[in-house]
Amino acid sequence: MTTELDKYDRMILDILQKDGRLSNQELADRINLSPSPCLRRVRHLEELGLIAGYRAHLNARKLGLTLIAFIQVGMDKHTPERFENFERKIALHPEVLECHLIAGQSADYLMKVIVKDMDAYQHFLLHTLTTIEGVSGVHSSFVLKTPVNTGVLPIG
Question: Tell me: the pLDDT tens digits for 25-43?
């Protein structure tokens, strides 16, 4: 179910996903609305779950995290218990930025992982990922360059 959004709601969502640190006054000025109704709208969008949270976008390289891998993971059995176990265990590892159950590939999961270097990746692969019960195959692809990485949803 999608929520009906008017032009102000769409502007609020578009602006906040690009700069979540704006004050309510700055946001209200940008959308030509007074601060009080602007704040009510933001709170309503939060209550609806359209704004799921706020966080800082960190510079991974400056934190020493230089290797990004996309990993396709195959499972030996396609049972709810096997998938739930994998998802529960993989969620415990901060290196895993994303994990998606997928269709249309030979793999069952597609994960995005970030680590310091190839040694850290090898440790993650051999001591974490492949030790999870049910993992039957792993295929890794390494990021050379990221020409687009906005994280901004198209608000139309």
Answer: 999 999 999 999 999 999 9
H/E segment holding residue 118:
helix 118-127
Give burial (CB, 10 Å; 0-12/13-18/19+) of 16.
middle
Give per-residue pLDDT as tens, 47-101.
999 999 999 999 999 999 999 999 999 999 999 999 999 999 999 999 999 999 9
Burial tier of 53 (Cβ tally within 10 Å: 0-12, 13-18, 19+): exposed
Is the same domain home to 32 and 70? no
Say which amino acid occupies 39: L
| Domain boundaries, position 32 | 7-47
Quick one: which of 115, 138, 153 has its CA closest to 16? 153
Amino acid 98 reads E
Report if residue 42 sits inside a domain. yes
* Within-domain flag for 54: no
Alpha-carbon gap, residue 81 to 101, rounded angstroms: 14
Q: Degrees (nearest 5) of the Cα angle 27, 28, 29? A: 90
Residue 101 corresponds to which tokens in the numbers above?
A: 């159950």
d(CA 61, CA 54): 21
